[in-house]
């Protein structure tokens, strides 16, 4: 019967071949392709034949080579798609490649062995898939938008990101440790929904009153709702299993942590949206590998680049998904490089396409985000002091914007001195003394990031108490190498140092304010030096980089960057370091300069270019991120706490309000995810060893193992990339940092349990209720995740 079938097919193929236009056969060439024949009359239900057609040099017929296999069980959806197509080159989807060469769809076994599927049944199946996706999306949106207006007061970090949205509406410059895209989108959502940017966002618990806040919360809830259909589609593409995708959607829908994090004005739902969109786009363009340079291939590749720019533009954590996509791209290019059928020109096209879409396009969009950021925020605000004097000169309302100040420093001038190390600030003092046991009990000297009258100092000669601003006296300029005194304008105490140890930094000397009405001692004397200048040169405002050397001890004035305790108002420590090496922390410049006896010059020539602004802003953000420390009574956590759902985060309720919000994951979901990661490592290791050792696996097991290894491997790698780097970070960490990794662990859980249940159903195929194992297992997991 098999031979008869072969001859019949060969005859049909030969009769269907058109005659050659010139009456002769084409040049000899051979190609092979496979066709699956489910439901052969001589085979039991579930078996299939794989036919390999070899086209001979003379088109008089085709030979058919048939071999026998068995279809996977048809429980809960197909493994490799619902249609059977000739296989040419690489498969049309990742799941099809993962299923191996001999695995067809489970849906084929459900059809009659003698009757092919009707087009209407395929349309019905496609309609069912769309209906299920719509149901998942509707459930997601319903859960995220339920009681979105509650509580009607500020919750947790809404006080930061809501305020920053207001800054964009008011065009007021500010500083934040994260890139600007997420905050810009929040501000845009508020503006479009009628919010006028007048609410102060002072502290958690403050009522919104009549201010419109629902637009900003609604925007974050919308992106948070999109996480579930994105995860659903990603798992569906990796496994081609509706049950695996549905289980993943249920895990995320019923997780209280994801729900809570999506309902407030935060960056996290925006970040996770771009991460999941990038992951789905990457999986989709992988599935188009058999159609390179086609319209869908270009679309998904370009969309991957757009989402990568979005993820990095919200938080630097977006770098993790960039690394994952980069690894996938390198692996893809490596396999293409090993394909000897591809010419070097084709390989060059593949490489160029990926460079353009995954490097150039994201970089251009990321830079464009900053261009818009700097264009919108053109007014002076609370973030000025974090940046250099030249940067501040471009902000309208800043005292350096379109300003005219004396060019050269002279005695009697009132000045501010700014440290050149990013995010250190201005030399500052105030009327508070160091506490007992902390060096000498003298006036504190610190650095302060914001503009303040306590930043003003008067520069005087070390050996004269006469008033340099006396009109009868000539102007005398300060020069490189001069010995000077700096008198604090508000308290009339001199900048002073001695051999007492600094408050926080060992082996450094304490810096204080000392004296009465400008009179002190020789420990008030400092030698001013200009970097890379000769003795006697004048000192230019803003441009000259200076150091202050203590005359008695020989130490250099600088800032350690360490934050003082509450007695120091959490400002930064100033020390006198005996190490004379030139570092940015010991180099200063004169910013403000007031001297009525000197002519002024315009500062427009000092405004930096756009690349200089970009570089400086990133240096300030990186330093600000590394300097984040926990506040008193603040609930922080460690990375090992996160997967076990050890400790949550209080969003609201600290002020005895009626509505309390606490961020904590669903224990069933989180512990199931943790168990699934361990179980996946074990099962994947077993399959990987079996494959590597060349073990002969049944085609069903081989196909499911490839889905587990390839699809699950990508998800495990995503979880690792978004979790383990936090163990290396020195900054303060919170529970919400784990949620991008939690998305990947939930997708891995859905794919793993669906695959394991299919393997169980296959192993019990001889029992009557074998097909119920998969269905009952999935239903049990769905009901378990819904339990609170």
Automatic annotation (TrEMBL):
Annotated Low complexity bias: 14-28
A GO term, aspect molecular function: dolichyl-phosphate-mannose-protein mannosyltransferase activity
Bilayer-spanning residue ranges: 214-235, 242-264, 270-286, 298-327, 351-372, 668-691, 711-728, 735-753, 765-787
SUPFAM superfamilies referenced in this protein's UniProt entry, alphabetically: MIR domain
Catalytic reaction annotation: a di-trans,poly-cis-dolichyl beta-D-mannosyl phosphate + L-seryl-[protein] = 3-O-(alpha-D-mannosyl)-L-seryl-[protein] + a di-trans,poly-cis-dolichyl phosphate + H(+); a di-trans,poly-cis-dolichyl beta-D-mannosyl phosphate + L-threonyl-[protein] = 3-O-(alpha-D-mannosyl)-L-threonyl-[protein] + a di-trans,poly-cis-dolichyl phosphate + H(+)
Region: Disordered, residue numbers: 14-49, 69-120
GO CC terms: endoplasmic reticulum membrane
Keyword Signal: no
Membrane topology, from the record: Multi-pass membrane protein
Domain annotation MIR: ranges: 406-462, 475-531, 536-593
Pathway: Protein modification; protein glycosylation
EC numbers, comma separated: 2.4.1.109
Main location: endoplasmic reticulum
Job description of the protein: Transfers mannose from Dol-P-mannose to Ser or Thr residues on proteins. Transfers mannosyl residues to the hydroxyl group of serine or threonine residues. Coexpression of both POMT1 and POMT2 is necessary for enzyme activity, expression of either POMT1 or POMT2 alone is insufficient. Essentially dedicated to O-mannosylation of alpha-DAG1 and few other proteins but not of cadherins and protocaherins.
Entry similarity comment: Belongs to the glycosyltransferase 39 family.
Name of this protein: Dolichyl-phosphate-mannose--protein mannosyltransferase
Organism the protein comes from: Bos indicus x Bos taurus
């Amino acid at each position: 019967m098999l031979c008869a079938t072969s001859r019949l097919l060969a005859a049909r193929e030969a009769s269907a071949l058109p005659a050659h236009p010139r009456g002769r056969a084409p040049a000899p060439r051979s190609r092979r392709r496979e066709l699956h024949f489910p439901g052969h009359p001589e085979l039991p239900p579930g078996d299939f034949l794989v036919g390999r057609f070899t086209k001979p040099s003379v088109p008089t017929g085709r030979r058919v080579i048939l071999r026998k296999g068995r279809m996977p069980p048809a429980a809960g959806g197909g493994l490799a798609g619902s249609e059977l197509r000739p296989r040419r080159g690489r498969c049309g989807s990742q799941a099809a490649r993962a299923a191996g060469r001999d695995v067809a769809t489970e849906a084929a076994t459900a059809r009659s062995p003698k009757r092919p599927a009707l087009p209407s049944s395929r349309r019905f199946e496609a309609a069912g898939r769309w209906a299920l996706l719509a149901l998942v999306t509707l459930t997601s949106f319903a859960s995220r938008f339920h009681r979105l207006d509650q509580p009607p007061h500020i919750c947790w970090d809404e006080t930061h990101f809501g305020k920053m949205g207001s800054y964009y509406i008011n065009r007021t410059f500010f500083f934040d440790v994260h890139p600007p895209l997420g905050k810009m989108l929040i501000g845009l959502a508020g503006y479009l929904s009628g919010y006028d940017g007048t609410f102060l966002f002072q502290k958690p618990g403050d009522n919104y009153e009549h201010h419109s806040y629902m637009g900003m919360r609604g925007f974050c809830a919308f992106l948070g709702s999109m996480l579930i259909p994105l995860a659903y589609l990603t798992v569906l593409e990796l496994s081609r299993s509706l049950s695996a995708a549905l289980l993943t959607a249920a895990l995320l829908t019923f997780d209280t942590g994801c729900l809570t994090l999506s309902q407030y004005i935060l960056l996290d739902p925006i970040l996770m949206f771009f991460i999941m969109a990038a992951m789905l786009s990457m999986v989709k363009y992988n599935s188009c590998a058999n159609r390179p340079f086609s319209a869908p291939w270009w679309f998904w590749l370009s969309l991957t680049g757009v989402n990568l720019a979005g993820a990095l533009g919200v938080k630097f954590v977006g770098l993790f998904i960039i690394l994952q996509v980069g690894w996938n791209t390198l692996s893809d290019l490596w396999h293409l490089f090993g394909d000897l059928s591809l010419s070097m020109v084709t390989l060059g096209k593949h490489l160029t396409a990926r460079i353009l879409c995954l490097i150039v396009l994201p970089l251009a969009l990321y830079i464009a985000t900053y261009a818009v950021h700097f264009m919108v925020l053109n007014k002076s605000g609370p973030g000025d002091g974090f940046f250099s004097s030249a940067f501040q000169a471009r902000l309208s309302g800043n005292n350096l914007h379109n300003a005219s100040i004396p060019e050269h420093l002279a005695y009697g001038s009132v000045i501010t001195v700014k440290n050149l190390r990013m995010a250190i600030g201005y030399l500052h003092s105030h009327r508070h003394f160091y506490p007992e046991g902390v060096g000498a009990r003298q006036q504190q000297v610190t650095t302060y990031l914001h503009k303040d009258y306590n930043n003003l100092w008067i520069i005087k000669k070390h050996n004269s108490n006469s008033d340099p601003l006396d009109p009868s006296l000539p102007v005398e300029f300060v020069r490189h190498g001069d010995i000077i005194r700096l008198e604090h304008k508000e308290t009339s105490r001199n900048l002073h140092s001695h051999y007492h140890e600094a408050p926080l930094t060992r082996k450094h000397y304490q810096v204080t304010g000392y004296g009465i009405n400008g009179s002190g001692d020789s420990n008030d004397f400092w030698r001013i030096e200009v970097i890379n200048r000769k003795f006697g040169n004048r000192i230019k405002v803003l441009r000259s980089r200076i150091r202050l050397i203590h005359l008695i001890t020989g130490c250099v004035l600088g800032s350690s960057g360490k934050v003082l305790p509450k007695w120091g108002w959490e400002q930064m420590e100033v020390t006198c370091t005996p190490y004379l090496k030139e570092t940015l922390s010991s180099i200063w410049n004169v910013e403000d300069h007031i001297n009525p006896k000197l002519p002024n010059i315009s500062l427009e020539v000092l405004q930096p270019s756009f690349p200089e602004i970009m570089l400086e802003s990133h240096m300030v953000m990186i330093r600000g991120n590394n300097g984040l420390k926990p506040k008193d009574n603040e609930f922080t956590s460690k990375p090992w706490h996160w997967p076990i759902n050890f400790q949550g985060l209080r969003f609201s309720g600290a002020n005895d309000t009626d509505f309390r919000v606490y961020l904590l994951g669903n224990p069933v979901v989180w512990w199931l995810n943790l168990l699934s990661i361990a179980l996946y490592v074990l099962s994947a290791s077993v399959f990987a060893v079996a494959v590597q050792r060349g073990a002969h696996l049944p085609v069903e097991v081989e196909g499911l193992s490839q889905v587990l290894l390839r699809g699950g491997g990508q998800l495990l790698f995503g979880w690792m990339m978004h979790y383990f780097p936090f163990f290396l970070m020195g900054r303060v960490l919170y529970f919400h940092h784990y949620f991008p990794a939690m998305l990947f662990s939930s997708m891995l859980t859905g794919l793993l349990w669906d695959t394991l249940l299919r393997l169980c159903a296959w192993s019990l195929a001889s029992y009557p209720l074998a097909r119920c194992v998969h269905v009952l297992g999935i239903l049990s997991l769905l009901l378990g995740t819904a339990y609170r």
